[in-house]
Amino acid sequence: MRAVQIEKFGGPEELRFVETDTPEPGPGQVRIAVRACGTNPADWAVREGMLGGPLPQGTGFEVAGVVDALGAGAEGVSVGDRVFGNVRFGTRTSGAAEYTVLDHWSFVPGSLSFAQAAAIPMAGETAVRALDEVGVTGGQTVFINGASGAVGQLATQVAVQRGARVIGTSGAAKAARMRELGAEVVAHGDGLEERVRELAPQGVDRVVDIGPGGQLPLLISLAGGDTSHVVTVTDFQNADTYGVRASGRENTVFRYDALQPLADDIAAGRISFPVWRVEPWEKVAEVQETIRSGRSEGKTVLRVSE
Predict the structure, then answer these.
(1) In a domain, 198, yes or no
(2) Of the candidates 16, 88, 119, which has an alpha carbon nearest to the alpha carbon of residue 3?
(3) In a designed cystine with 98, which of 1, 134, 145, 247 is the match (CB 3.0 to 4.6 A)?
(4) In this structure, are residues 70 and 64 in contact, taking their beta carbons and an 8 Å threshold?
(5) Does 226 score more than 90 pLDDT?
């Protein structure tokens, strides 16, 4: 089969289209013919070696496609089913490939395209996991640092669905969009704590950090000094220093079970999560660099096959 591999860590020039063996599904797994592969900051981080692991490695960690083969013991699914899900990190081939295997999968609702479904797994799982790890429920005020990105937009909407009040950071370009999703918007940058406290003078009940890092002391202060009410999915470097939960590291319980209800809500229009661009997978290097440079305006999905 054809797949994209990283043969050595580095820049976009290290992404190679190769012919390699088609993976076989192991016990409890399914193999899918990949139709679409979502893209994320994790793609370039893996390519540059930030997560380590053996070489060669694949790229692309969220997919949608058609079940092509079943591993022993795979239940509740049939060849020909439309499914989507997360792909393991650190394997020889990943989601940017003609075929891949999934340990966990959900079904693509009939009204969603493969591209729409492939956009959901990483952002959706991360959003629900982060909210649940700090116990976001109705009646709380939640501050989401980095609310206007893919994870933040989903976290905002899920929190609002639960009955929480959401205050979130956003740049000017996405502020109107975030208000439409139910957030009270504050700008990034100096004076952030003061701006949040203008809306919530007593601080907030929970904090979800999806920002660029370096703001944990401020976020802890907004949570009244209670580090158990703060979770970060980005600032792993400083989390231990401040005693904040860093979600996504070792021993994390991933919430793949949240993906089916999330996809159903998107299909029904209860949650909005549009795809910004769909590009042929031959543009994988260009797309990764757009994300890395901060020029991405939304979720980009690679079209692997029709």
Answers:
(1) yes
(2) 16
(3) 1
(4) no
(5) yes
Residues 70 and 170 in one domain: no
3-state secondary structure 239-268: HHHHCCEECCCCCCCCCHHHHHHHHHHHHH
Q: Are residues 108 and 219 in the same domain?
A: no
Residue 267 within any structural domain of the chain: no
Q: What is the spatial distance between Cα 217 and Cα 183, in angstroms, rounded to a whole number?
A: 23
Q: Which residues pair with 229 in a beta bridge?
A: none
- Domain limits at 92? 2-120+273-303
56: domain CATH number is 3.90.180.10
d(CA 267, CA 306): 20
Same domain, 225 and 142: yes
Judge if 202 and 91 occupy the same domain: no
Render 205-217 in DSSP notation, one character per residue: SEEEE-SSSS-HH
pLDDT of residue 192: 97
3-state secondary structure of 41: helix
Q: How many domains does the chain have?
A: 2
pLDDT beyond 90 at 51: no
For the stretch 253-282, pLDDT in tens is 999 999 999 999 999 999 999 999 999 999
Question: How far is it, in rounded angstroms, from Cα 117 to Cα 42?
Answer: 18
What is the pTM assigned to this prediction? 0.95
pLDDT tens track for 129-184: 999 999 999 999 999 999 999 999 999 999 999 999 999 999 999 999 999 999 99
The one-letter code for the residue type at 262 is: L
Q: What angle do CA 214, 219, 221 make, to 5 degrees?
A: 125
- Asked if the structure places residue 263 within a domain, the reply is no
The owner of tokens 């089913």 is 81
Return the CATH number at 237. Answer: 3.40.50.720
State whether residue 259 is helix, strand or coil: helix
How far apart, in Å, are the Cα atoms of 4 and each of 9, 13, 174, 231, 266? 13, 12, 32, 33, 29
Please give the residue that has the higher pLDDT: either 201 or 249.
201
Q: Quick check: is 261 in a domain?
A: no
